[in-house]
Protein 1
Amino acid sequence: MITLYHSPQTRSSSIVWLLEELGVPYGTKHVTFRRVDGTGARDPVNPHPHGKVPALTDGGDTLFESSAIALYLTDKYRATWMGPAAGEAGRDAYLSWLAYRPGVLEPALILRRLGTPHVQGMMGWAEANEVEEVLNAHLAARDYFLGDRFSAVDILLGGGIHFMLMARMMSETEVLKAYAARVTARPAFARMMAA
Ligand SMILES: N[C@@H](CCC(=O)N[C@@H](CS)C(=O)NCC(=O)O)C(=O)O
């Protein structure tokens, strides 16, 4: 049985959305965590080594980090296609964009919001304006990150773009606005929001 360690309106909501898309049975355990305003505390039941959400257990397997959880779930539960398997065309783009959200998108945009200057050559991610240029150019040419097929990348990166547009952490463009509207129109997104 899959158990998601979750708190609503956090990054673990992406995993709820993914589990809804996959249509696999799962349970959620609501946990507390340390919030940005200084409230909240680590929850001792959460297996995440830093007490963050999401974390996920599945039988004897324990996972943390959204991208790793998404890759694990989409590799293991394949009745609904949510990403290319190893050896399938598009796996290269799938892995790269899955890693892009925590490795590039988030640090670039969060540090810009905090006013931290980008140090080219030292920081392992690109400068925020350049990230926006890459995302706009990529999505101007296709409906979804992998082309014409919705995948888990559109949950992790698409959900992130949707959130960052709402939080005004990204410049709104017609391309990004249309893309965010496309991915959040999915019934599984509505089920995640309702939950
Ligand atoms: N890189 C992690 C980030 C997880 C994360 O930072 N989650 C936030 C909630 S949105 C959290 O648990 N914060 C609590 C803390 O920083 O201790 C992932 O993508 O899963």
Protein 2
Amino acid sequence: MNNLKSILLVGIGLAAGFVSCDSGSMRRTPGHIYAPDMTYSRAYDAYTSNPNFEDGQTSRLPVEGAVARGHQLPDHLMEGDTNAYKTFTTALRFNEEEVKEGGRLFNIYCGICHGAAMDGNGPLYNDGNGKFAAKPANFKDGKYVHMQSGQMYAAIKFGKNMMGSYAGQLDIKQRWMVVAYIKKMQSQNGGDPFAFGAAGTVADTAHAKGKVMADASTATVPAESKDSKKKATHKREEY
Ligand code: HEC
């Protein structure tokens, strides 16, 4: 029994030795390689030069017009399309949680100027004593309480006078979530609710026809979901 054990141990030891010697020497002198294209990749590594492209770079930009997974299709809204802003809206639907997320984003990116209370008096302005000289829009003010969602969206995308663009910080869905949050707060203050476009249609048509599909003041659950249990439990599938 003992003999058998020691024979086994020696055997295992020798095998391990061979394996380690073998792999060690393989790295230095490969000798014969079966299927070399498996040992040495034929693909160009990222950041290496590449003779197949004019600019000699292997890393390429995505094809023009490509949309990243999980992101919205581009909105095609142009700066200066001031009439289009007004009727511009979205086919997205938000549940309460997403409007809350809009509020979180508002407090990070907008509240510093526009104020967490939407009064246009965030810490950066501070009644004119803050570091930012321009008076931010007061979302409680009549002019802004009734401002169309699309115009707000445009302000986020392109900026407005002294306010810079937030397109780099907020993707399309996040911009609308922020607008939905502002509109919800405003609707509790006599303002208009967030106007959604019809799901699955070109974004701006429904609002242009004056159809208000859902009322942000009523918990911003999409109007359609209320009468369809299936939709209500699978809200995220709508995107
Ligand atoms: C650095 C300060 C600052 C920040 C941060 C800021 N804004 Fe503004 N915002 C302003 C100022 C100033 C104006 C007034 C511009 C004007 O009318 O001249 C303004 C105007 C607006 C308007 C009115 C646009 C219009 O057409 O009159 C909206 C809507 C708006 N901001 C939304 C936002 C949102 C949403 C965010 C966050 C993503 C944000 N702002 C972040 C300073 C800021």
